[in-house]
Structures are given as C-alpha cells and as structure tokens.
Amino acid sequence: xxxxxxxxxxxxxxxxxxxxxxxxxxxxxxxxxxxVSLKLSxxxxxxxxxxxxxxxxxxxRISSTLLLPSSGSLEVFGxxxxxxxxxxxxxxxxxxxxxxxxxxxxxxxQVYAYLRARGIDRATAKERAAEALGQMGLDEVADMMTITLxxxxxxxxxxxxxxATKAPLLFLDEPTIGMDPFARREVWESMRKLTREGSTIxxxxxxxxxxxxxxQRLYVIEGGRVLVEGTxxxxxxxxxxxxxxxxxxxxKLREQLSTFGEIVSDGGTVxxxxxxxxxxxxxxxxxxxxxxxxxxxxxxxxxxxxxxxxSIDEDEG
Amino acid sequence: xxxxIRLAGMKSFMATETMVQMHEWLAVLTGSMVQAxxxxxxxxWAPGLLxxxxxxxxxxxxxxxxxxxxxxxxxxxxxxxxxxxxxASPMSPESxxxxxxxxxxxxxxxxxxxxxxxxxxxxxxxxxxxxTLIASLLAVWAFSSALGYGVSTRFRDMxxxxxxxxxxxxxxxxxxxxxxxxxxxESSLRPLALLIPTSSSVALIEKAAGMVSLSPGEVVLGxxxxxxxxxxxxxxxxxxxxxxxxxx
Lengths: 317, 248
Description:
The structure holds two protein chains of two kinds. Chain A is of the alpha/beta class.
C-alpha cells in the first residue's frame, strides 16, 4: 500500500459542516446538503442511508473530489479535498451511481485498462484484474464483450474495476443495484475482505439489509442533514422498542394497542413497536379478540421508515 | 501552462479509447461516407478538381475526428458516468481529454491514410507539401478535438448534443472552401476563409503542393491563424478539462 506513505492520518475521511446549494440556471435553488459532518476511521465500512434526493450522492461526489461544496471542510487521510484534489485522487476510487463500463471492451480489458490508467504496472494490473473479476463471479464472462452481459453483470464489472484498485478509500454509490442476492453477497464479501486488508469504504444503498449486514456504522441523511448516526442496533433502539408485534386485521384494536408503543400500519395489519416487557399483555389482548399476532425483531427498514417519517412530519408540522 | 501539464495515465487511456473505437469499426467506415460521396460527385462532374476535393476530404475527416471526441466525451459522461471513475483517480484531467482525443485519432487514422494515399497517387506531394499536410491536419485535429470536448461538457442529454455536432461539422467542413479550392470563393471573403482552420489548412496544403497560389500575406494569415487557433483551443481544452473534472 504505497499510498499510505503520503499521510499518517488515522482518519480516512473527516467532513465538517459540509453544505451544498445548487444554483442551476432556470431551476429553483436546491439546498442539497445543509451542514453534514462525519468521520470515517481507516478500515471502517460506513453506509449512508436516505430517501432519494436526501443528499447522499451529493456528499459522496464532494468527498471524492467530483463536486465543490458551497461551504464546510473535508479531509481524506489528512489532505484537504477542496484545496488539493490532486493529493486526494490517488487515495480514492469511486463507483458512480448508475455508472456503466465501456460496452465495447471485455470486463478483463476494462479492469486492466483502468488500473493501467491509474499507474499500476502491467503484471500487477493483470493479476488484480483476474482476482477482482473472480471475486465478482465474472470468471466465465471475463473475455466476453461487456455489451452482451446482463445489467447485474455490468454493475459487477464496475465494482470489480474499483475494488481491483485496492485504493485506501472507496466510495460506492449504490454498488449492488440490479444485482441478484447471490451477486450482492459476493460484493459484500469482497468489501469485507478489502477492509480487512486496510481499505475504508463509504457506500450508499437503498437495501437496508445490505447496510445492516455490511456496515459497522450508519448515517441516515434526511433533507441534507444527518438525522441519526450509529450502529444498526443503536438506530433500531431509537424507535421506541426492539420488538415488533404484528396483529393481522388489528385495526379494531388500534386504540388499545397504541398504549403499548408506536403503531405502524401495513395494509390490514397493525404493527406495534414495543419492548419485551409488554409482549405478554399485547398477545393476550390479540388472542382475546380472536386475532392472529406474531412477534419479531424490529428491522432496520422499519426503524428507517419510522425515523425518517417522524422527521418529515416535524418538517411539515 | 505547458510546464504544469500532467500526463499521468494518458497513454493507457489513449489505448483504451482506440480499442473502444476500433470495436465500432462500422462507425469508423461510415465516418468517411460524406467525404466518399462528395468525392464521387466531383469525380463524375469535375474530375479536374478531384485532387482539391481529396485535400478537402482529408481536412474534413480530421475535423470529424474532433467531433467524435464531442460525441464520445458526452456519451461517456452522460450515459456511462465513466468520467467520474477516471476523474476520481490519479489520472490527470488533461490526460483524460488528451488520451481520449489521441485515442480516437488513432482509430480513425486508416481512412485518413487511405485518402492521403489516393492524393499522393493523383497528385504527388513532395516532402514540403507532405510535411505541410501533416502539420496542418494536426492543427485541425487539435482545434476540433478541443472544441468538441468543450461543447460536450455543456449538455446533460445526448439528444441535445447531436444537432450541435452536425452544425459544427457543416459550419467548418462544408460551407467554407474545404472541398472546393479557395479561388472559387468570393475574393473579398478569402481572408475570412483563411481564418477558419479547415479552409486555411486546405489552402496551405494546396499552396505547398502547387495546386493554388496564395500571396505571402495570405500564407502568413492562414498559417498564423491556424497555428494560433490550434494552440489556443488546445490550451483552452486542457484548462476546461481541469475545470470540469470537478463541478462547481
């Protein structure tokens, strides 16, 4: 990892009050980021979660030297992202959102050519291209024209291109979009391997299971601000309980159930988020009313919906 | 500016672009169709002007290479977002622009070389004329590539870009005296024609090959403007590549 010679900073990324306002000609002014601060330590895997337009991609593009912030400061391994992008760029690699590989190259040529353009020698580039394509399950199609591959395979070529760099800090904007569950898990495993080897990963995703499985910490961004930050477990605890009771056709019990915790309706099913100490009472209530009820842990998706929903309600209120 | 140019990764990106373009061999061939059609017309209607039309076809072909840069840079950025992959890397933005331009030039060289061979058969050039041809065509390529790259960064949709590419190609390649000799052009407007890179390159090549006569003043105007415009646009292209590697 010769890149690390440039810096001894243990922080892979430090962002302070990063704001971005878009002033497009003929379009309304958009405040995409309103003061985002976050830190990534070397070797961490962090996910940014948020609705479409929350500001995740804007933050990623600013951090990866592709977009200037309106205000705030960012450092990558101690290098100022705004003032010295040329010092930052050798330390990073990016999977852009909705990025596609060259259609008229083979996956092997695509990865190899990109590594060569980054200054990696021929032998290492060849070796790493083969390794990355193997990790992405692309061995069999490595020498086929990329245009003949499926959408998910093309996306895997993009991820392979970036992970083959072994750059110290990787930015992955929705890296597994369009992939099947097997391919997604191959990507996850590759990311875990990379961080074990010392790389740091900042990713955005709309797959909450991916975020939970892969990330050591999460930042939920809403309306250009960090709404909540922490581990998946700590974020789930912020919604008022760790368990979810689902009562089928439970609308008629809604008022009584609401005294036990927060209610989220899903069709005819009433979902109640609560703690373990009230479970017996709730189940008894459901059984006495002749209704079926199940108990399970609160998922990250439910916590996300609840937290972001609350924020939207507050903003609108 | 020259001292500050970083060419890290340029050679590799050039090779990548050449490979990509060569896979689209039909595009390379169809890129010569307009020139071929015009040459056929000239051959049928005015065979005595065929050598002039061949010089024009050479300049037009090289100008077209620059317009391929417009389309390729826009396609890579708008459709593939691959510019982000390369800009967020140690490869310098100027390497990205120059690598793409030279890569496309290499891929499109065979039809240009074919036209040059036809010209040599029809009207042997000699060393001075051959060197003038190479220098002039390189200047046209630099001008057109930088123009194409600059225009490509201004749009977010491929459909919006196509008319501009067509407009530039016709404005620089068809309207001025490119396929027809300068002496057919309105004499009072000749200085204006010599300010246009495509037509000045053609006039200079034809002068060096003894096909037209130009006054010393016209030579200075044509050569000076061609060199100045090529260098200026190239410098502007490098500046713009750096500037647009990060959006504001």
